[in-house]
């Protein structure tokens, strides 16, 4: 009953104050209009507190004093007494033309007086908006505005290859240029405006892309941290104004532009969602990787690879790990052996594997050995190769050497085998390259000696 009496008093007081029938005292107050964002804010008059079933605010937008848009904001009973807002995105920058907003409240077919806010006109030659970062694929509108006494001669793009460009005369003192931004800028581009008096002004803009990173993959190398990699996508070498920032699991990535980020985390044997956030001035992007990283172990290179035992035909290798937690992992290791002419790989298995044996080698021969490893269970990828190690096998006495000596080196034939050290079977001796060349040299010298001797004898007989 008290509420209805207050409402009756409110309407009656409005009539007595000369506002006329149907005029509501409850309306907006403390109205502000932001010049850059075109955000309208206001509060309710204290008299609105008696209203129990909500208010409606009616809005009218005018551009160059011509109606452009009508809207409304519904205020629920619980919101009466709080601050309200309304935002408009004009097809023209607010500086290009006179923008006004009219606002009034409505309740039970009663309306408050209109309250109007207007963005002021500029009194100088301007091209607006300035220093904009715009997305490729969007459409942008720029305005050139000149004061009284001047008119616009031309308005055009500079250092941008867009072809879909239109200019519009809004008034004698205001022209607009609209361009479809179909490509990325290498640097800042410009919108130039020239007046009939030869005065020139302009505004710069840069077109680029929001983040489009993709293909996030995470792994661990030490079971105490994560390493994540991804494709950085387009505009990897961006203009400084478009620099991207990255966060992995909510923490900053210092060198995110390289497509890599590492962080210390506590790893559990469970699948988790790993999230990378990329942000620039045009947008924000999240990409994800769901994985149990205890099953994605990328082993580091074995350390201090060396030969613990060297024999003529086999070598025992040993190495160590710089990551202590590898001692509990089932590990498979590849041993790569090269003698300069051929390459072989052997695999070895074991928990915390730190040793391997290389067999079927040639005595007194040089080899280059390196090792890499991966997890046996839940294999993810091969780890890094160790540093290469040079190892020479020990020499060995060839079979049959004793019998050869007993025969006073009665060699009936010579066979050169490239990969053999020394080997003897029946009457055939297999020689290494250096020995073989020595024998050939001796034979050649002997042949020369015999030929010279024969020539000497023949010459002597001819003289006689």
From TrEMBL:
The chain crosses the membrane at residues 436-460. Residues 301-396 form the Fibronectin type-III domain. PROSITE patterns: FN3 (PS50853). SUPFAM superfamilies: Fibronectin type III. One of its GO terms (cellular component) is external side of plasma membrane. One of its GO terms (molecular function) is cytokine receptor activity. Pfam families: LIFR_D2, LIFR_D4. It is found in: Membrane. It comes from the Eukaryota. CDD domains: FN3. The keyword Transmembrane helix applies. Its main location: membrane. The keyword Transmembrane applies. This is Leukemia inhibitory factor receptor-like. It comes from Pundamilia nyererei.
């Amino acid at each position: 009953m008290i509420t209805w009496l207050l409402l009756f008093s409110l309407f009656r007081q409005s009539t007595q104050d000369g506002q006329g029938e149907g005029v509501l005292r409850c309306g907006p107050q403390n109205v502000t209009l932001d010049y850059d964002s075109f955000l309208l804010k206001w509060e309710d008059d204290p008299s609105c507190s008696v209203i129990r079933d909500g208010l409606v605010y009616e809005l009218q937008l005018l551009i160059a004093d011509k109606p452009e848009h009508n809207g409304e904001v519904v205020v629920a009973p619980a919101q009466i007494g709080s601050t309200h807002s309304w935002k408009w995105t004009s097809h023209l920058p607010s500086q290009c033309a006179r923008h006004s907003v009219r606002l009034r409240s409505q309740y039970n077919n009663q309306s408050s007086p209109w309250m109007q806010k207007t963005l002021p006109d500029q009194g100088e030659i301007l091209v607006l908006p300035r220093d904009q970062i715009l997305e490729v694929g969007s459409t942008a509108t720029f305005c050139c505005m000149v004061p009284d006494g001047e008119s616009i001669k031309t308005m055009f793009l500079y250092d941008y290859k867009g072809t879909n460009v239109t200019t519009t005369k809004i008034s004698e003192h205001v022209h607009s240029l609209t361009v479809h931004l179909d490509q990325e800028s290498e640097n800042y581009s410009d919108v130039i405006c020239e007046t009939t008096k030869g005065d020139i002004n302009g505004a710069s803009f840069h077109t680029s892309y929001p983040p489009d990173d993709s293909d996030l993959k995470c792994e661990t190398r030490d079971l105490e941290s994560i390493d994540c990699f991804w494709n950085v996508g387009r505009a990897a070498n961006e203009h400084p104004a478009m620099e991207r920032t990255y966060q992995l699991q909510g923490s900053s990535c210092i060198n995110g532009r390289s497509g890599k980020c590492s962080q210390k985390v506590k790893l559990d044997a469970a699948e988790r969602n790993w999230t990378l956030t990329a942000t620039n001035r045009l947008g924000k992007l999240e990409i994800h990787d769901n994985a149990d990283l205890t099953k994605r172990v990328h082993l580091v290179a074995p350390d201090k690879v060396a030969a613990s035992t060297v024999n003529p035909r086999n070598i025992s290798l040993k190495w160590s790990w710089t990551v202590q937690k590898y001692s509990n992992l089932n590990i498979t290791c590849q041993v790569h052996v090269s003698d300069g002419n051929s390459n072989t790989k052997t695999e070895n298995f074991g928990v915390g594997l730190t040793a391997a044996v290389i067999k079927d080698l040639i005595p007194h021969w040089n080899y280059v050995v390196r090792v890499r490893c991966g997890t046996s269970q839940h294999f993810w990828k091969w780890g890094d190769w160790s540093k290469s190690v040079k190892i020479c096998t020990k020499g060995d006495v060839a079979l049959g050497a004793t019998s050869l000596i007993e025969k006073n080196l009665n060699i009936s034939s010579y066979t050169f085998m490239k990969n053999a050290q020394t080997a003897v079977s029946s009457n055939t001796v297999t020689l290494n390259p250096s020995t073989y060349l020595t024998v050939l040299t001796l034979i050649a010298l002997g042949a020369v000696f015999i030929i010279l001797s024969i020539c000497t004898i023949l010459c002597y007989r001819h003289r006689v």
